[in-house]
Amino acid sequence: MADRISDSRTKLFDALTPLLPPGRVSKYVPKSVVSPTIWVERHSWAATREQGAQVVIVSWRIVAASDADDDQAKLDELSAQIFDVVTRAHFRPLFADFTVVDVGGASTSALVVTVEQTVAATTLCLPPDPIKKELVTAYV
Predict the structure, then answer these.
(1) Alpha carbon of 115 to those of 19, 34, 89: distances in Å?
(2) What CATH number has the domain bearing residue 125?
């Protein structure tokens, strides 16, 4: 079953992918890290009301890490680029902060950017695809 959370993660991943060479942007937290890298962490969501209608806001943490000698300059550049690409992809950047992350024994500088997206008015699960439903029914 498709859902709006997975769709939101995919949209965010697709927006971030062009920022680094192939294989350096991960849709999920990677098992190993090659610097520089970007990954999308776990989500959180909150149900609220906007203009009298129920909506669900999904928040994501994006981590950009670099262990290069010029890691601060690279992370400054990635900070600006992440802001721009997520805004164009209709996410709202909320804030960013620098930290140090442990990437399997070594520590590296990282930028953590929190973004949010309004993804649904009443449900997070997408309705079944009518074409797929017809195909399944035809073979039963």
Answers:
(1) 17, 24, 11
(2) 3.30.70.1700
